[in-house]
């Protein structure tokens, strides 16, 4: 986080980054550990994630909102996945092989709406862009910058994610 502070000039934005750190660090660390299975690598992933948060701090309006929570967790996941790939360059691994989904994602809680349950079942890359686009309201270009993707990759992930969502909802007997 200290490196992220160096990227921010305004004291209010530094205070916002610090609040994000203390509010979400444990959650972000938990998610990075799930992916990397190593505390040291997870710390590295968090450092990378906080650098990206610092670069995008002006886009965060409310620290204690669900959209900020989603945003920081997605950045932690993305940083952890990137580190995983760097560690395992010699093997070919898909994004689905890298991430271990929490058990509830196989069987979402009954309290979720059908749409929310379908979103939870999406592979992480699709879920990330779908949530950033439709829940948080970011543009494809902003998502591409945050996740370090090309805009065309974001567009493909959104398109494929929407198709998977339709499939999941149709399997549940819900027509859109």
UniProtKB/TrEMBL annotation:
Which residue ranges does the record assign to the RNA polymerase sigma-70 region domain? 22-88
Instruction: Name the CDD domains on file.
Output: Sigma70_r4
Domain (RNA polymerase sigma factor 70 region 4 type) ranges: 115-165
Q: Keyword set for this entry?
A: Sigma factor, Transcription, Transcription regulation
UniProt cross-references to NCBIfam families, sorted A to Z: sigma70-ECF
Protein name per UniProt? RNA polymerase sigma factor
Show the taxonomic lineage: Bacteria, Bacillati, Bacillota, Clostridia, Eubacteriales
